[in-house]
């Protein structure tokens, strides 16, 4: 199907110990709000994220699709070639890193341009969520996922760009609707005013997620980080790793991200009953017109 993920399903089922019978069980009875065209590759990510618990998986699926329906500012019009997404990609760095020895996926994010006026908060979150989906597209279900944020170019003025409603939706989705097991959030080059950021986000974070938050200052000793979480062979040279620089990795990823454009457009049609958000909006406007 055109809206399917691209990873090898048979390999993933074997690697993660997932059952095709459980995938079938998720379809019966149908889950309200979940497309009947959802594929086994999509379902496998949720099943693995929920430790193969069928009832919990059905619950998360419902939350996932409800979030995408009720948060159009974060989940609609997800065309990688659109001007808003391209603006994000020009001013920020996004890409998945190689899986760790523990099999974890890793998503890297950093501001490329320190100018606060170039930072559009909702579009940045939308692009970040697309990067997570892109990672699932290629890497499939994994034992866990790590978020790696680099605060190198973050300034106080960026806080003025934050949309509190979107902060709440961001954490609600990550905590309750993510089709992956969140294992850790690592923040490197932590800024001196991180306490202000924490003050903003703390009301929306569950205690278990706070316990997954690891802060690393610019002069921190990373040897423990390399040993326990992400080895040098999986990190960009900017962070003492063996890979290419962040700029180079981001540019390489852009080509792959844009190749996935048919998937992003098809996935939106899938959950909107066959039309994209723009098409649906136009249709709703026409229906609302009254002709005398």
Describe this structure in words.
With 292 residues, this protein is α/β, with parallel strands linked by helices. 48% of the residues lie in helices and 10% in strands. The protein has a five-stranded mixed sheet.
- Percentage beta strand: 5-15%
Mean of all residue-level pLDDT scores: 92
Biggest beta sheet attributes: 5 strands, mixed
The radius of gyration over CA amounts to 19 Å
The number of distinct helices, counting runs of at least 4 residues, comes to 14
Which descriptors apply to this entry?
292 residues; alpha/beta; 48% helix; globular; disordered C terminus
Which SSEs are present, and which pair or pack?
Layout: H1 9-16, H2 20-25, H3 40-49, H4 54-70, H5 72-75, H6 83-91, E1 92-97, E2 105-111, H7 121-139, E3 145-150, H8 164-176, E4 182-188, H9 194-201, H10 207-210, E5 213-216, H11 223-228, H12 246-259, H13 261-271, H14 277-288
């Amino acid at each position: 199907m055109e809206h399917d993920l691209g990873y090898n399903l048979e390999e993933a089922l074997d690697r993660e110990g997932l059952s095709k019978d459980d995938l079938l069980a998720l379809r019966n009875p149908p889950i309200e709000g979940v497309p009947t065209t959802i594929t086994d590759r999509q379902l496998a990510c949720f099943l693995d994220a929920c430790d193969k618990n069928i009832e919990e998986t059905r619950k998360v699926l419902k939350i996932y699709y409800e979030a995408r329906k009720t948060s159009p500012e974060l989940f609609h019009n997800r065309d990688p070639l659109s001007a808003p997404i391209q603006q994000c990609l020009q001013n920020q760095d996004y890409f998945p890193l190689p899986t760790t020895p523990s099999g974890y996926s890793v998503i890297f994010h950093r501001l490329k341009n320190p100018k606060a006026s170039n930072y559009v908060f909702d579009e940045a979150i939308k692009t970040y969520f697309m990067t997570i989906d892109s990672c699932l597209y290629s890497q499939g279900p994994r034992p866990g996922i790590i978020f790696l944020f680099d605060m190198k170019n973050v300034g106080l003025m960026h806080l003025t760009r934050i949309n509190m409603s979107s902060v709440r939706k961001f954490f609600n989705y990550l905590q309750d609707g993510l089709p992956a097991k969140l294992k850790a959030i690592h923040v490197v080059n932590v800024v001196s005013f991180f306490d202000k950021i924490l003050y903003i986000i703390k009301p929306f974070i569950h205690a278990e997620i706070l316990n997954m938050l690891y802060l690393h200052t610019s002069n921190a000793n990373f040897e423990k980080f390399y040993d326990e979480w992400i080895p040098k062979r999986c990190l960009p040279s900017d962070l003492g790793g063996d890979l290419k620089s962040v700029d180079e990795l981001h540019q390489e990823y852009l080509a792959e991200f844009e190749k996935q454009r048919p998937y992003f457009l098809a996935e939106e049609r899938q959950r909107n009953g066959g039309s994209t958000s723009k098409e649906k909006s136009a249709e709703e406007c026409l229906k609302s017109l009254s002709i005398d």
